[in-house]
User: Which sequence fits this backbone?
């Protein structure tokens, strides 16, 4: 998207400051001034950058796209799927309440869609296992 950013580590103060410069602006923006979608996109960029420097077998993100518009969500999902496809030794788990139709599929990517929640549901039914 053409955005740039900077991390300022202040170890003695125990502070980490993330500064973002949106593509259309020349001045820095404190993350508090970003919209919800911009914050979400910035978080994904930050996590992807960290992932290139930290080795973990699992990476999970929950409701990362909740505040994104459809354009940023499509770009973000493309970046995340590309990252997951290129790191075959890692497992990625992305949880979202958003529509998952149209997410690009790859041979090593599995998408699980849960049934819609019935808000009036009083109990959870499980299939009986009579052979156990």
Assistant:
């Amino acid at each position: 998207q053409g955005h740039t950013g900077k991390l300022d580590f202040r170890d003695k103060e125990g502070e980490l400051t993330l500064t973002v410069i949106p593509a259309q602006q020349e001045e820095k923006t404190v993350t508090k001034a970003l919209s919800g979608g911009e914050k979400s996109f910035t978080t994904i960029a930050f996590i992807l950058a960290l992932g290139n420097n930290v080795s973990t077998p699992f990476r999970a993100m929950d409701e990362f796209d909740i505040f994104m518009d459809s354009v940023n969500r499509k770009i973000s999902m493309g970046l995340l799927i590309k990252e997951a496809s290129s790191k075959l030794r890692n497992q990625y788990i992305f949880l979202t309440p958003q529509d998952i139709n149209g997410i690009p599929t790859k041979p090593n990517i599995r998408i699980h869609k849960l049934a819609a929640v019935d808000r009036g549901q009083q109990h959870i039914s499980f299939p009986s296992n009579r052979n156990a």
User: Anything to note?
Assistant: The beta strands are 4-10, 15-21, 29-30, 58-62, 91-95. The longest strand covers residues 4-10.
